[in-house]
Specification:
202 residues; alpha/beta; Rossmann fold; 7-stranded mixed β-sheet; 7 helices; His_PPase_superfam
Length: 202
């Protein structure tokens, strides 16, 4: 099957450059709504069996135009929400967030017992996302999961067979409505085919 992990469209904290992981979180900006509308064209001509979104408002709003165009319901799952920023919630990217970044690096290197200061362990974060992927893979061939940049990047580094943890810095940056596509299944594993428009070696 193919799995399409879509980062949500723009919210104001993306513009202002600070960490935001509260639930349900903010709405899309006007630019974000335009970006969400454009997702329909991204999947033009491709069969989509199901659309999932996290429990955060911005992912549901991003998924709505595509789901409406395909006549599909949006399956909302809390497991797809962003990494809990913990003590770094609301901190500017320009400030000292090395603790946040170093925790993500540890997870990407599969040291999943590390806890985000004030937040979840890597194991809990990866497991909740994987549970939704496993559900979505049941009886479907092409599934869109609208989620969040950091958790998409880290999950792929941990789970995908052809994404090196050494490339985390490169892969962490996923633009708003950027798509990471994978092929595979929960039994045989996953391989990334394309990362936000860039082909990935198999």
């Amino acid at each position: 099957m193919r799995l399409f992990l879509v980062r949500h469209a723009q919210i104001q904290p993306n513009v202002d450059l600070f960490l935001e992981s509260t639930v349900p979180g903010p709405d899309l900006t006007e630019e974000g709504r335009r970006q969400a509308d454009a997702v329909v064209d991204v999947f033009d001509g491709r069969s989509i069996d199901a659309v999932y979104a996290s429990s955060m408002i911005r992912t549901r709003q991003t998924a709505e135009p595509l789901a409406a165009a395909r006549g599909l319901d949006i399956h909302v799952r809390d497991g797809l929400r962003e990494i809990n920023s913990g003590h770094y919630e609301g901190v500017s990217y320009r400030a000292d967030i090395e603790g946040f970044i170093s925790t993500i690096r540890s997870w990407a290197e599969r040291d999943l017992d590390v806890r985000m200061p004030g937040g979840e362990t890597g194991a809990k974060t990866i497991d909740r996302f994987t549970a939704v992927v496993d559900e979505a893979a049941t009886g479907a061939q092409d599934v869109v999961l609208v989620s969040h940049g950091a958790i998409i990047a880290v999950w792929c580094c941990v789970v995908a067979q052809n994404v090196s943890t050494a490339s985390l810095s490169e892969h962490l940056a996923i633009p708003n409505t950027g798509v990471v596509s994978l092929c595979g299944d929960p039994t045989d594993g996953w391989r990334v085919e394309n990362w936000a428009g860039q082909a990935v070696d198999s």
